[in-house]
Amino acid sequence: MNGIDLTTTSYGKVKGEKYDLAVLPWGATEPHNYHLPYLTDSILSHRIAIDALSQALQISDIRGMVFPPISMGSQNPGQRELSFCIHSRYETQKAILTDIVASLNCQGIHKLVIINGHGGNSFKNMIRDLSVDYPDFLIAHADWFSIVPQAGFFENRDDHAGEMETSVMMYYHPEWVSLEDASEGTSKPFALPSLNEKIAWIPRHWGKISIDTGVGNPKKSSAEKGERYAKAVVEKLSRLFVELATKEVYY
What CA dihedral angle connects 48, 50, 52 and 56, to 10 degrees? Predict the structure, then answer.
């Protein structure tokens, strides 16, 4: 990991090097049922980013750097009230991203990939605004958890702290998973059929849909399932990194 991970590398190793892109993991600080860490979204986006960049370096002679993960996530009502859950406003997230882009831009690094691990985060309008302010700066965004469909990897679909997230955390950090403490992640749908059919969208009130903060059953999670899924995601992200570093975006 050393040399591509800003949490472990030093200035002595990066000084004088030319970098093709930077990778920014982004997560949240929020409860994940009773068995996963508050920083699950940040931890997983960071580990996936490092693995993907490591693989990209093996495939092609590119240089990239993974930032420490940002743990300022946007929360639904009913989550923000839970102990130590932090809700970060759009304006806060945009200010953080703007400062990172401005810093990289003045350093001559003009490509940034956000690897997002939190479903409540939305970066598209921020990126559009920044593309106006920094027209020569490319920002790409990927939700790592939606790159590869869950079908064929897991028995129960994960929405939050379920089988997928738990399995991937068991693969990367089994010491931080207390599966024996996990509740079943039972959730309730909206009372309005139109909302369940996604005719319109409103934020879900977490206190009304979930008993244990989870949405999805983690009971059948395993490190083996997590490894298979993580490697499938990493393969696709590594290809993205290589393409962004070596090819033109448009014909």
Answer: 180
Tell me the two tokens of residue 131: 């593309």
Please tell me the distance from the alpha carbon of residue 228 to that of residue 107, in angstroms, as a whole number: 37
Closest among 96, 99, 103, 97 to 140, alpha carbons compared:
97
Residue 217 Cα to chain centre, angstroms:
20
Give the tens place of pLDDT for each residue, 49-68: 999 999 999 999 899 999 99
pLDDT in tens, 224-241: 999 999 999 999 999 999
Whether the predicted pLDDT of 2 surpasses 60: no
In the predicted structure, residue 127 carries a pLDDT above the cut 90: yes
Nearest CA among 222, 224, 218, 229 for reference residue 33: 218
Whether the CB-CB separation of 88 and 73 falls below 8 Å is answered with yes
CA gap 216, 120 in Å, rounded: 16
pTM above 0.90, yes or no: yes
Question: If we measure between CA atoms, which residue out of 172, 40, 38, 27 comes closest to residue 114?
Answer: 27
- Which residues are CB-neighbours of 43 under 8 A, at least 6 positions away? 27, 37, 69, 169, 172, 173, 176
CA–CA gap between residue 213 and residue 32 (Å, rounded): 6
Domains in the chain, ordered, with CATH?
11-246 (3.40.50.10310)
